[in-house]
């Protein structure tokens, strides 16, 4: 995930092992993403998430190609107004977490793309929705893992819309505005997830980020991912990092 839209040219997805030269935190012991071994996770009962009403309304977002990925923030003229109404709390986190951005990670084909792996398996894409507690500065990221639709499944329309819009942003700093319903983008059972503490998965790779990785997958059409691969970047994910002595919890 990234929490800002600034871009610099000190890093790329071709050489992620070089990031630590400019961003020392990338060599830390609590980095993300990780491979989650489900049978080694520890059961824990977290209280439910509570989402603000705004989650279920269409809001205007601005997508930008920042040279590394395509990030969606609330559009400028709604910023300040809507951002204070888009939040969640609960689920064992302290305080109220406000929406910062959402974006997608993908790979060159369906066997690559997700940042987190589950039992050694990498999925075709992974979405991040980034939140921040404005009082403490604590970051929390929701991760949604994607599968490609089979013949009996319909893809998630809201993510198709993201792919359509994002694939038009062929040059760095290109932007486009688009309406999205966050609750439709976040279409997974919110009582079933993994939880651990890690880092941003893009430089500066700052640690202390609370990760929630939802178990239920979101289906997306292969054409949508192909649009991104062909028109934008072929590879937008960081490889897995060592777990070291962290614990991954599961709520299910
Ligand atoms: Zn991300």
TrEMBL record:
Family to which the UniProt record says this protein belongs: Belongs to the alpha-carbonic anhydrase family.
Organism per entry: Adineta steineri
Entry EC number(s): 4.2.1.1
InterPro entries reported for this sequence: CA_dom (IPR001148), CA_dom_sf (IPR036398), Carbonic_anhydrase_a-class (IPR023561), Carbonic_anhydrase_a-class_CS (IPR018338)
Cofactor(s) the protein needs: Zn(2+)
Domain of life: Eukaryota
Protein known as: Carbonic anhydrase
One GO MF term attached to the UniProt entry: zinc ion binding
Cited SUPFAM superfamilies: Carbonic anhydrase (SSF51069)
Ranges of residues in domain Alpha-carbonic anhydrase: 9-252
Catalytic reaction list: hydrogencarbonate + H(+) = CO2 + H2O
Gene Ontology CC annotation, any one: plasma membrane
SMART domains: Carb_anhydrase (SM01057)
Entry keywords, A to Z: Lyase, Metal-binding, Zinc
UniProt function note: Reversible hydration of carbon dioxide.
């Amino acid at each position: 995930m990234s929490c800002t839209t600034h871009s610099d040219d000190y890093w790329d997805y071709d050489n992620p092992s070089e990031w630590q030269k400019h961003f020392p935190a990338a060599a830390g012991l609590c980095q993300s993403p990780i491979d989650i071994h489900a049978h080694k996770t520890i059961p824990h009962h977290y209280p439910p998430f509570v989402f603000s009403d705004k989650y279920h309304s269409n809001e205007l977002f601005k997508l930008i190609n920042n040279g590394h990925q395509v990030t969606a923030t609330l559009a400028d003229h709604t910023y300040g107004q809507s951002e204070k109404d888009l939040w969640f709390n609960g689920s064992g986190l302290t305080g109220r977490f406000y929406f910062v951005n959402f974006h997608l990670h993908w790979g060159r084909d369906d066997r690559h793309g997700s940042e987190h792996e589950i039992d050694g398996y990498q999925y075709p894409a992974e979405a991040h929705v980034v939140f921040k507690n404005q009082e403490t500065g604590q970051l929390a990221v929701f991760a949604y893992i994607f599968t490609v639709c089979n013949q009996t499944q319909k893809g998630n329309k809201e993510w198709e819309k993201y792919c359509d819009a994002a694939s038009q942003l062929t040059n760095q700093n290109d932007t486009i505005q688009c309406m999205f319903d966050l609750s439709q983008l976040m279409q997974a059972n919110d009582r079933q997830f993994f939880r651990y503490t890690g880092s941003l998965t893009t430089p500066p790779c700052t640690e202390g980020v609370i990760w929630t990785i939802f178990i239920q997958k979101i289906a997306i059409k292969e054409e949508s991912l192909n649009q991104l691969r062909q028109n934008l970047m072929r590879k937008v994910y960081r490889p897995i990092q060592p777990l070291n002595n962290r614990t991954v919890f599961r709520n299910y």
